[in-house]
Amino acid sequence: MANNTTNRKLPLKMPPDWEPPVPAWSSVFAENQQDVSMCIIGCQHKSDAYISEFVGALNGLAKNADVCDFATCEDKDGLSQTIAIIYWMDAQACADWLHSDVVTLFWELYSDDKWGFGIFREVFNVPFERLETLFSGPVHNHGFSQIRKDIEGPIQRHGYWGGMRDRIPLSAENPFEAHQTLEVIEQQGNRVVVRAHENLCIIRSGQDWSHTTGTQREEYLNQIEPVLKAGMNFLRDEGDEVNCYSCRYMTQFLPFKGKQECTFGLAFFRTMSDLEAWSESHPTHVAIFNTFLEIAPKYGPDLQLQLWHEVSVLPAGSQYGEYINCTEGTGLLAGVKLS
Known about the structure:
Blueprint: E1 26-28, E2 35-45, H1 51-61, E3 67-74, E4 80-88, H2 91-98, H3 101-110, E5 118-127, E6 131-135, E7 150-152, H4 163-166, E8 183-188, E9 191-195, E10 201-208, H5 214-238, E11 244-254, E12 258-269, H6 272-281, H7 283-295, E13 306-313, E14 320-324
Antiparallel strand pairs: 1-7, 2-4, 2-5, 3-4, 3-11, 5-14, 6-13, 8-9, 9-14, 10-12, 10-13, 11-12
Helix pairs in contact: 1-3, 5-7, 6-7
Protein name: Phenylacetaldoxime dehydratase
Family: Belongs to the heme-containing dehydratase family.
Cofactor: heme b
């Protein structure tokens, strides 16, 4: 996923003669793969009644998707959110699926007030020139990297402020500035549709500690995770201070099997610059970064904790969130004023 150093209009952020403090890898996809579609479909609920039915129905609907990950979290309003993140490597297949009779029936069924919960879907399509992936090891079994073609690494462009931007190919010529705002394009009763603006930045950043043992497991659970959770809660509860529209700190689960030892933060920032500013200078992320660097380098390639992320910068177009019976702090709703 790395881009060339020649013919750049905008310089790399990477320092001269840079040597990363820890190794990292990126995922490589087929050359003819142009983009990836991501559908986040979920419900917001106080009670767990009917949630297993909702998950079961959604799991069945997504059986032909390329990747489907389920997760749950507590949001800023004290409610639970249970979601599926569904990836399609064929944009037309994703569009056809969203407009299919079975998905339409599912959406209409669970839009009914009788269930006592809100439902939402956030739909994005991102060209590969506008995204990047990063993993702490050569095993890439999370996110849409589950359907990668290959891996690249250890890579040089990571471990410094600006590495995330440097790994996105289009950053060579595009500063990814935001000139628009989130826009309510439909509002009727308890249903709101929000259109995302160009260059909105999405990060899904995960931790998998299922392979950790002994000291490494204790270090993650007792030293890294509490600091990480504090940072995610800041973005969830006070993210408007740093232009973060929404942050969900989620625990993955397998339908009908239970929770996994995997978490991720799923956050929407106004721009990549806003994500970078929080990462580089805000005390909550500096604490995360420094805690990790206190622990990880001593293990090198023997680090058992698997860390990863995928970062996307949205193009203009039909990127949207639809919310029914949801609180105003849900997803993209948090970035608009409702009438």
